[in-house]
Amino acid sequence: MLAPEIRGVVGSAVAKQAQVVCALEAPSGVVRHKPCRIAASAQGYAQLREWLETWGTPDTILLGLEATGPRWEPLDDALTHAGYTLLLLTPRQTASWAASRGRRAKTDGLDAHTLARGLAAGLARASCLPSETVPALRALTRARRDLIESRTAARQRLHDEWVLLFPECVRFLPTLPGRTDLGEPAVLQLLSTYSSARTLVGAPLDELTSVLERLSDGRWGPDQAHALQELARHSTASARAVAARSVVARTLAQQLLELAAHITELEAAIAELLKDDAKGQQLPGIPGIGPQGAATIRAELGDIRRFGRIDEVVAYAGLDPRPRPSGAFVGQKQLAKRGPGALRHALSLAAFVAARCAPEWRSRYQRLLDRGRAKKEAYTILARARLRVMYHLLRTGEPYDPTLLNRQAPVPAC
């Protein structure tokens, strides 16, 4: 229900260049200000504050913003500092309001009017904005995930080009001293210098030896240089478009080196944030969760206090099974898969690691298999159970205790 002191509601459809606002009187619902566009700038926000002052005091006006990405943040900061109360509304929630009103058209003006109508009807609930750590971790972890995906794609493309430029080298790399593959900085720097078998054959042996010793910190020497050059001399590399493919391989190798540096920088920033975050420090104590997994879960889960019970957390993560019966038809239950996909991926990966490394989770996983569960289904059940444990630990602040996980309930006396 709408608070009795509220005399006006304002709905705002947030966009990149401008916002559209619509004001209604409360509780009558009479239109006070038709949908109007304001610029997403300091001048536009100042104009909106002038309108709000004519409509009432900050404690008698309620505003609703649709949370479209982070574009609502500047307007929220401008109005919150002025003393107004703002509620963040999810697109799914506002879409249900529009459907209940029979709205089939979609414009910014109609969206703003729908938001205002939902606020006037008391359908919106109070927002829970996270602390500064959560959006900071969210920005860093999502940027790191994007770079990881770019690195995976670039590494695969480099492999595809390199098997045409020097196919024998892919099999030769594991024989070099130390851990060696196409993702190692020393190998990438070597490919930046010699990007095909043809360039390796034409390079002086002493020069190639010097480069290998410098790149590998002395792990590779004359023997490896001679073997690599002999391998290149008898290579079955393709003779087509060698110059162009060499440019591509050299560019991809340099890109991978840059991506590695950027990923390292992001991981250092994430570690610095987690160092001062008590809840973030709790998560690595659970088996299967490393620093990056803890950062992702902390960022995507947000403030745990906004969930009233564990079922809400499971539903938010999209790990709740949805039945599909209809009449005589009984379909298989499927995961809802709503909410952040990165959160589900982090939980699933942590469950996979815990089922192999932690005895208490390995025994639980084996029990699921013994009951006839498929492996994929067992991992999903395990991820959901681990989310329940995380919710309890983050809510209570208790440390992780493996002895409590598989504790059997006492048998009542006869």
Describe this structure in words.
The chain is an alpha/beta fold and 414 residues long. The chain has 17 helices and seven strands. The protein has three domains: 113 residues, Nucleotidyltransferase, domain 5 (2-Layer Sandwich); 135 residues, Helix Hairpins, CATH 1.10.287; 114 residues, no CATH class. The chain is globular and about 85 Å long. It starts with 7 loop residues before the first strand and ends in an 18-residue tail after the last helix.
The global form is: globular
Number of domains: 3
The helix-and-strand class reads: alpha/beta
CATH-defined fold name of the largest domain: Helix Hairpins
State the share of residues found in helices, binned by percent.
Answer: 55-70%
Q: How is the largest sheet built, in terms of strand order?
A: 3-2-1-4-5
Head-to-tail CA distance between termini: 52 Å
Cα-based radius of gyration, to the nearest Å: 29 Å
Number of strands: 7
Q: What profile does the largest beta sheet have?
A: 5 strands, mixed
> So how many helices?
17
